[in-house]
Amino acid sequence: TEGQVHRRRGAAGMGSGQVVQYRAAAGHVAVLAVLLPLCCRAAPERLRYAIPEETGSGSVVGPLARDLGLSPADLPTRQLRLVSGSRRQQKYFSVSADTGHLYVSERLDREEMCGDSASCSVTFEAVVQNPLNVFQVDVDIQDINDNSPVFSEPTLELEIGEWTVPGARFPLEMAQDPDVGSNSLLSYQLSENPSFRLETKETPTGKKQPELVLEAALDREKQSSFQMMLTAVDGGSPARSGTVQIHINVTDTNDNAPVFSKSAYEARVRENVPTGSLVLQVRATDADAGSNGRVSYSFSNVPDAVRSVFSIGSDSGDIHNVGILDFEERKEYTFGVAARDGGGLIGHCQVHIEITDENDNAPEITMLLLTDTIPEDSPPGTVVALVKVHDADSGDNAKVWCELESESPLSIVASSGSSYKVVTASALDRECASEHNVTVVASDRGSPPLSSRTTLSLSVSDVNDNAPVFEEAAYSAYVSENNAAGAAVLRVRARDADAGANGRVSYWLVGGSAGEAAAAAAPYVSVEARSGTLYAQRSFDYEQCREFAVEVRAQDGGSPARSSTATVRVFVLDLNDNAPHVLWPTAATPGSPGSPSVVSGPFEVVPRSAEAGYLVSKVVAVDADSGRNAWLSYELVQATEPALFRVALQSGEVRTARAVSERDAARQRLVVAVKDHGQPALSATATLHVVLAESLQEALPALSERAAGAESPSDLQFYLVLALALLCALFVLSVALAVAARVRRA
After folding, report:
1. Hey, what's the signal peptide range on this chain (predicted)?
2. CA angle, 610 as apex, 605 and 614 as ends, to 5°?
3. SS3 of 708, please?
């Protein structure tokens, strides 16, 4: 149900149904608030206040925030404000940001705001945010009796023939009161006169027409004129009044007053008709002849607002428009017309002109709320703009519908009253479209329809909804062994479709695999966080680790952060950095390219009866490198009897090149070179001792001679090094003892 809340300001109260008159000095304001709550809602969607006219600027209309269910603590976040489609109406009221009270911003004059309309109200919207809601607020401007009745002239001149019979009626001019309601209900009083009395007659418009009634026969010779005072009193409290002096001349010829064909004329005319168009014709006749029967027409006590719009022909009674007729400014005009004959008698009639509406106003679009930027993860239905549409026309001409003209993920839906919400119709994706420009079109249902347009620009802000994406799911890099530490290995790159910090990518190592040796060692590579470049942390050794893999994570700067990973596999390329290693006959000592090293080894016994091709021994060697760097070839580089032996190039087999003869020395020394195919090539040598004898017993004398002989150069070197080491140790010990003795003595 609709409830009424009466609020009183000041010391003076207000009774039920009582009209309140505003006094600026006293500052008493009576406010009526009517709340229309809806079911299951904390605040009404429509508020109605009432305030008397002439309320001064700064007066409180009502506690708007409290009536909307807002506390003072909510005001900073809810951002209560007033909006209206009509700037003329919005200027009258304001809302306090601190208290939430509704205040009067400009003095209210009901007659200026609404003219003679029966009702007068100002309508606007109260908008709150977080969340968004719109409430319609109506403020009724109550009329107070601030205008007195007014006659058009200070004196009414009448001429009445002496032959006029008692009971004759003479219509008088009606007074005008700009107030409405009971404040404009006029009653008339006539000063006492034995020859005349005052009566009133109700017109079709509901107003009272004063008429002067002759009580007694007139005798011009006894009294040729009469003076009376007519007083008009309105129905206000306290009442206001206006007076006019009536001067009656008694004549002896003019016995008929002009009579209109109708007591009230009505006409309908379209607004915006050209100036000078005929609106209405009034006609009055007078039964007298001559100048007494000649009728002239004029307005009867009409306000300046009527005279600025209409004119009347004094001879023809034609009423033309001399100003622009605007339905939006005034919908109807009611005024009086007087017909006066040459003898001074007057007849009156009422004219009512109704202005019909034309579709001459396009809808006005007002942005009550506009969100410039919206996150791309906003759900469908999120409000981005609140649009108020107003059409000053009426009827179908004022019925407005809105639509969006361009394709976009937005839609427009009707809200309360004549408001529309622009909402998201589907999910937004900043990566597809970072800005949406839509045109709101408001069209009325007039004929022809009128429309207006306004463009909305909406920017879509980024949220971190995209993870970085590597250009490749897996990367491969090839690095030669013995590389320098800190050398660039590979650059990975990931792209993030987001913007700003959400699209700023950093790189990290997650983990990897490089075998057990790599697990115990320091990390092989590192990655630069900004560029994604991988650098070698140490020199790689193909013989220890031929390949390894690491996982690189690309992570953006959003919150929460998003990431993705890619696998980087690094292949170590072999270099020829290992010389061949002789396993048989003895372990070889590696030498530099072109300078083979000498290795002593065991002996082999070859019978003197051996033929050519006899297998003496086989040199066995390996190379830690791979590929061509590990392909080995064998070559005999030194022999006691070079023509006696040969070495197989690929297998390293040592065979006799010819049959052994008695002339060949019993002891043979062979030096075999083992060389790889790297660039540059590396080599090693193996020394093989061969004894030519039929049996082992026969070979023993040769071996003993070799043992009794001079020691080999390698044994000599060993003894020299050992002696030098002993001398150095004795020297160090002597120095230490001397220092210790001196320290002890000190």
Report:
1. none
2. 85
3. helix
Beta strands in 193-263 (DSSP E): 196-202, 208-214, 225-233, 241-251, 259-260
- Check the CA dihedral 341-346-349-350 and report its sign: positive
**Nearest-CA neighbor of 692 among 672, 712, 652, 662?**
662
Written as six digits, the tokens of 115 are 């003219």
Counted residue by residue, the chain has a size of 746
Q: Phi and psi dihedrals of 742, rounded to 5?
A: -65, -40
Contacts of 512 (CB under 8 A, 6+ apart): 524, 548, 549, 550, 551, 568
> Per the structure block, which two tokens stand in for 305?
């607002």
* Structure-token match 């120095």, residue found: 735
Q: For 324-370, how does the pLDDT look when each residue is reduced to its tens digit (9 = 90+)?
A: 999 988 889 999 999 998 877 889 999 999 999 999 899 999 887 78
The amino acid present at 445, given as its one-letter code, is: R
Q: pLDDT digits over 270-328, tens only? A: 998 999 999 999 999 988 777 788 899 999 878 888 999 999 999 999 999 999 999 98
Residue bearing tokens 């006894």: 222
Residue type, 719: Y
Does the model's pTM come out above 0.85?
Answer: no
CA angle 534, 539, 544 (to 5 degrees): 110
Beta strand pairing status for 241-251 and 155-161? parallel
CA angle 284, 286, 287 (to 5 degrees): 145
Domains of the chain: 46-142 (2.60.40.60), 155-251 (2.60.40.60), 259-356 (2.60.40.60), 364-461 (2.60.40.60), 469-513+522-573 (2.60.40.60), 578-588+601-701 (2.60.40.60)
Contact 211, 173 (CB under 8 A): no
Radius of gyration of the chain (CA): 61
